[in-house]
């Protein structure tokens, strides 16, 4: 049962990454409010990282590099749980988020401010 849960999460995560990579994404928040959201520029940031243009990645979205590291780490942990037939990473991750939500909100606010000041 754990393997099925991990497999479903892996498929959803990988499908989302492929979808974002091939489909042009328009920011609803930007369209409605005129402000750049904390995620605006993330696709361009990831693309810059893949081309080893790290300063451009930071310019497009300051959270691009940490988020990509987090995604890669999560994929590795999910595959590890899948192989070991465990379901420990997601509950641990949710526990981490519940304990550190103020820090995560602070990062999102910093990204929001950075995205709107640079343009």
How does the overall form come out from the CA principal axes?
Answer: globular
**In what range is the share of β-strand residues?**
under 5%
Query: Gap between N and C termini, in Å?
Result: 48 Å
Supply Rg: 16 Å
Describe what you observe in this structure.
By secondary structure, the chain is mainly α. The chain has one domain. It has seven helices and no strands. Helix 1 (2-22) runs antiparallel to helix 5 and helix 3 packs antiparallel against helix 4.
Question: Quick recap of the structure?
Answer:
The protein is mostly helical and about 120 residues long.
Which helices and strands, and how do they pair?
Layout: H1 2-22, H2 28-33, H3 42-50, H4 54-60, H5 64-84, H6 89-99, H7 101-118
Helix pairs in contact: 1-5, 3-4
Keywords summarizing the entry:
single chain, 119 residues, mainly alpha, 7 helices
């Amino acid at each position: 049962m754990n393997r099925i849960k991990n497999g479903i999460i892996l498929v959803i995560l990988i499908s989302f990454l492929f979808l974002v990579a091939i489909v042009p994404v328009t920011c609803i928040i930007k369209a409605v409010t005129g402000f750049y959201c904390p995620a605006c520029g993330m696709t361009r940031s990831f693309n810059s990282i893949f081309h080893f243009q790290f300063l451009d990645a930071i310019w497009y979205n300051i959270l691009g590099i940490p988020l990509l590291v987090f995604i890669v780490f999560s994929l590795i942990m999910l595959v590890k749980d899948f192989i070991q037939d465990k379901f420990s990473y997601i509950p641990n991750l949710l526990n981490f988020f519940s304990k550190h939500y103020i820090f995560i909100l602070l990062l999102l606010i910093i990204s929001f401010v950075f995205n709107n000041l640079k343009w």
